[in-house]
Amino acid sequence: MVKKIYSIIFVLFAFSLLADEDGSFKQFDRLDQKVSLGKEAKIFSVTGSVTDFRLTNVKVDKPDIQSLKKYTLISRNDKYAIKVLNEQGNQIMLVGLGDPFTMHIDHIGYENETIFQADIPQNFEIALPVTTKAAYFVLLSQDEFGFKEIKKIKVN
Questions:
Q1: Single pTM value for the model
Q2: β-strands 41-48, 122-129: how paired?
Q3: Which of 44, 84, 77, 41 is nearest to 61 (CA)?
Q4: How would you write the pLDDT of the chain (156 residues) with one tens digit per residue?
Q5: Could you tell me if 96 and 120 are in contact, meaning their C-beta atoms sit under 8 angstroms apart?
Q6: Pick from 79, 82, 100: which is nearest to 146 by CA?
Q7: How far apart are CA 137 and CA 91, in angstroms?
Q8: Rounded distance, CA 6 to CA 109, Å?
Q9: Beta 53-61 vs 41-48: how paired, if at all?
Q10: What is the largest CA-CA distance in the chain?
């Protein structure tokens, strides 16, 4: 009898996890605006590096799972972040990127040497709801003292 109760609790718990799985792909939730796999979104393609940041393309399409899973809430481990602003300069979104611009090359015995690192440019896709009025993208770097703006670009 006890095994049946445990089995029922386990099955209900498993179903509740599966029901919330789609919610983990939502990029942000502000004023009930959500980006998900099933809805069309504005997808901004940008190219960034340690010193530069530029917009390369804007399209309206359904985002793919990789672009939604890549960006998370900002954490202390994120060396870079992207901030999205509206026309008034209010923040719409802030997402952490990690450290995508540094390529680490391991050499046995020299793992902590900076000579085996290189800065590389990266391409990003940022998905926003179609109704969102994004005006600026800001590439930020984070250190122990906070955020520093690298470059701010205007979205047409």
A1: 0.67
A2: antiparallel
A3: 41
A4: 778 787 777 667 666 655 544 443 334 434 334 566 678 888 888 888 888 889 999 988 888 777 666 666 788 888 999 999 999 999 988 888 888 888 877 667 666 666 667 788 888 888 888 888 889 999 999 888 888 999 999 987
A5: no
A6: 79
A7: 10
A8: 51
A9: antiparallel
A10: 65
